[in-house]
Amino acid sequence: FSAIAQGVQAAARQEHRMVLLATTDGTPASEKEAVMAFAGRRAESIILAGSRSTRREDAGANAELAVELDRYCRNGGRVGTLGQPVAGLTETGRVHTVEIPNEALARELALALARDHEGPFVIVGGPEGLATSDDRIGGFQQGLAAAGRPASEVVHTGFNRNGGFDAGDGIAGRITAAGAPRPCIFACNDVMAIGVAAALREHGLEVPRDAALAGFDDIEWLRDFRPALSTVGLPLEDLGRLVTLGAISGEAGPSTVEGAVVLRHSTSTLV
User: Residue 101: is the preceding peptide bond cis (ω within 30°)?
Assistant: First the structure.
């Protein structure tokens, strides 16, 4: 999110605008509160850079968020969203969405990893109903199926570093069991992958010797992470710029960006 925010700031500065920033922990209820606050301050545009939730318990908050955004648009505001559009919006003519091909890219990653890894796969994903995580899990499973491999086990946890650590802690116990095959772990974002690696180290395990490990996003922190992490690279700052310029210009409808699979030492078979 910090890289995306840098892109938002750069685009806003280019267009002689100032940026107000709020963190919402990715919940539609908190996003609705932020939208109301920014609308009350007469913000020209509002950018939402969080995953949509399809969880049943968030249905009411999703509807309330859509109502607030529609009201804001009818009063002249413009909206930009990253990843997925907000369900239930009616004022779509004032909304610009930059779509991220999470499912397709995760499928490509699975196909690339399945070419060299012979053991089992484990997916570490966020809570069920978190759209970004669900898309990446689904795409990875599709890639494994296309490679003729069985479906992966999925461990659901927090969509952050601590969630990755908790999942890695559980996976480590199975790796150390006598005769256990070397797994390939796909964490649905790089921060989770960092947490998984930390948990494995706590158990005296090393990547890639005892487990292959891959993430998603190619965040800047990976420059200092060892071993170098296999991942899917996304142009994070460009995402922030694109969604901001689209919202400021009033460009409606979706646009898309491209990403690429990046294989590094964390999934190497040469350990």
Answer: no
Q: Are 230 and 113 in contact (CB under 8 A)?
A: yes
0.70 cut: is pTM over it? yes
Closest by Cα among 219, 261, 260, 256 to 84: 256
Strands (E), the chain: 45-48, 78-83, 95-99, 121-125, 153-156, 184-187, 212-214, 231-233, 253-256, 260-262
CB–CB of 199/165 below 8 Å? yes
Per-residue pLDDT tens for 156-202? 999 999 999 999 999 998 888 767 789 999 999 999 999 999 999 99
> Distance from CA of residue 2 to its chain's centroid?
13
- Rounded-to-integer distance, Cα 26 and Cα 48, Å: 9
Q: Give 104's strand partners.
A: none
